[in-house]
Specification:
The protein is an alpha/beta fold. The chain has eleven helices and nine strands. Strands 1-3-2-4-5-8-9 form a seven-stranded mixed beta sheet, sandwiched between helices. Strands 6-7 form a two-stranded antiparallel ribbon.
């Protein structure tokens, strides 16, 4: 079972499940989840091999989709997934359409990508954890590998400084990287409403991917958030929340 963070609501609106992206966690979504819980109950999860959830030997999307479906159980949810979490949410909707009311896919498409995330894993593996007394020590070690301070800060949210360990199963994520950047061949169609929300500065959801999206999600609609990149919820959180809320409330 995945570890979850729940944000109750006094409303009777359909509950929302949030699935984070690669190297993320439920905690990354805490501020957005709390604000969105004013209108609906929200649950954010730590995906397998991330955060406080169990580590497994596999990291394929069918497994991740099954993990999410067990959190939902038989109570239909709106489901929001970003990047890796978006792919898991799509597979969940295709495999268990009865458990998904509306689907929001943030800056990802149901296609294979060519860019690996192995440099990030190599950078995290390069840190001498025995020399880390505080987060800034790890940050200094990462600088040679990752010049962007925002990316370093994001990765370091998954570092347990006290225990000197990553809350990421780096070995399995590395072994399963082809699965993570790919997308499974899967039968099925999700006939419910689906919003594919992208950042205008991101190239993750191209026009060439739209025919495949419409094959699997015939009621898909597309929107972009101006000025946002791949981490659109971090770049433009208020605009992101407004777009998601408008879709879920429609």
């Amino acid at each position: 079972m995945l570890q979850t963070q729940s944000y109750p609501s006094d409303t009777q609106a359909s509950p929302l499940l949030i699935a984070h992206g690669l190297f993320g966690s439920a905690r990354n979504w805490g501020v957005i989840a709390k604000r969105m819980s004013a209108a609906r109950p929200v649950t954010a999860v730590d995906m397998r091999n991330h955060g406080d959830s169990l580590w497994h030997d596999t990291h394929g999307y069918r497994d991740m989709a099954s993990d999410l479906s067990r959190v939902v159980d038989t109570d239909p949810h709106d489901v929001l997934g970003h990047s890796m979490g978006g792919k898991a949410a799509m597979v969940m909707a295709l495999q268990h359409p009865e458990r998904v009311r509306k689907l929001v896919v943030a800056d990802i498409a149901p296609v294979a990508y060519g860019h690996t995330q192995m440099p990030m894993i190599d950078a995290m593996r390069s840190i001498d954890l025995s020399a880390v007394e505080k987060r800034s020590d790890a940050d200094r070690q990462l600088q040679d590998h990752i010049p962007d301070p925002g990316v370093r800060a994001f990765l370091l949210q998954s570092l347990d400084v006290r225990e000197r360990r990553w809350r990421l199963n780096l070995d399995v994520l590395a072994d399963e990287m082809d699965e993570i950047i790919g997308f499974p061949e899967i039968d099925g169609v999700f006939g419910g409403p689906a919003l594919f929300l992208a950042g205008s500065e991101s190239d993750y959801v191209t026009r060439e991917a739209r025919p495949r999206i419409r094959e699997l999600f015939p009621r898909a609609v597309f929107a972009k958030i101006p000025g946002a990149g791949h981490w659109l919820h971090a770049d433009k959180p208020r605009e992101f929340e407004a777009a998601v809320a408008a879709f879920l409330d429609a």
